[in-house]
Amino acid sequence: MKICITAEGDNLDSKIDPRFGRAQYFLILDTESNALEAVKNPNVGGMGGVGVQSGQLISEKGVKAVLTGNVGPNAFKTLEAAGIEIVSGVSGTVKEAVEAYKQGKFKPGNGPSVDSKFGMN
User: Fold this and answer.
1) Which of 15, 23, 41, 80 is surrounded by the most beta carbons within 10 Å?
2) What's the predicted TM-score (pTM) here?
C-alpha cells in the first residue's frame, strides 16, 4: 500500500511538514516493498487552489493514506473524494510517523484541521 507523508526534506529523516497543500515534499512510501519516492511539491508557491492541486497529484500516485500536520477543507474534500485516508496532527520525523502508522497508532480525521488559508506566506 502506498502512503504519502508531507515532509520538509526528501528522505525518511526529514521533519513532517505541517502543511499539506504547501508541503515542501511528498514522500510516497510503499509499505510492502519500502520503496520511497520523493516528490518535490510543484504547488508550494501557488496563489490559490494548492490544496486541490496537491490532492490531485497525490491521488494520481495511487496513494491510499496521507500523513500530515494539517489539512485544509479543499484538500480534505479532494483526498476524501479519491478515497484516501487522511491523518492530520502528525509531527516528528517521517521515519517516526511511518512506524507509528504501521503500528496502528493513528486514526483518520473526520474533517479539515485548519481553514483554507493556512500555510500562506
Assistant:
1) 23
2) 0.91
